[in-house]
Amino acid sequence: MSRINRLAVAAGAASALGVLAAAGRGVGAAMGARPDGVRLERMRRSPQYRAGAFHNRRRSTSSVPSSQRDVLERYRASAETRKPAGPIPVVSAHREPATEGLHVTWFGHSSCLVEIDGARLLLDPVWSERCSPSLHVGPRRLHATPVPLDRLGRVDAVVISHDHYDHLDMATVQALADTTDAVFLVPLGVGAHLDVWGVPGRRIVECDWGESHEVAGVRVTAVESQHFSGRGLRRDGTLWSSWVLASPAHRVFFSGDTGYFDGYAGLGAEHGPFDASLMAVGAYDPTWRDIHLDPEEAVRATAELRGGLLLPIHWCTFVLAPHPWAEPVERLLVAAATEGVQVAVPRVGDRVDVADPPGLDPWWEAAVAAVPHA
Asked: What is the value of pTM for the model shown?
């Protein structure tokens, strides 16, 4: 057995042991719960559910990279570029709510606040130091949060794309359940996690693809994405989703996590055109093409959606793939210029007025070019 293969086997064993050890240290609650009862019966009626699991419509995807050896090799080769050399600029996001128009505040990774005609919807909020069931191991954030949760203000809805740790965080959910009156809009099955975390059942709305719920004058619709789900060792026991946020005056597309598929033109025809699209552009790898957009695919999907202003998400905050830290946005800008797609790249904490987006400020270049601390 080669050294790389031994490393892959050891990493897999260590991961499994780490999960067990984490549960033993009292963090098993962060893994959530399996759906049962009425919730499970509803899942079984979904066209996406068969043989005890959810499935993508267009392509069967793997829950793990097809080649651990290749990924490990790329991680080793990119050790000096996966993190910025200097600090990531963070702007305070403590500000008065927007009462009209369409504004998007990016908190890092996929966490965003969409203010749409006075309604405030929080997307995939993760405020914890690590996107992990453990306080001690797992990917650690590279920058501070731009505002404490208790100073965020009113939240009408919390919208979750799927149950991976970098999109669904127990501590953040519990804090929002305690400090806001928000409704939690989640894909089928994800409500089981929220139940055991103490979110009242009356505040949990689970949606299959094509199903909607209206909150504060905004119709929120779950739509097809191409990904997978799982916390702990079980895979695909809950659904994953992109989301459409639509008021009488504005429309927003939120990709969540997804690979590229040939359904974006159809989604745009049914739900668009959009004023803004929040599109995942990072944490890609050649072995994960089915489940993560790369920057060029994000631009292509936005064009097919008639997606309006593209705001890149799913990059910057956590190291989840072997590509260089700033590569997602650098490739994105080249592809967007080629395809004529308008892009705004906010700093962490910036609020973007979609009707009057800011000019390009390549703030990430300073973080990459900084001299590392000794």
From this structure: 0.90
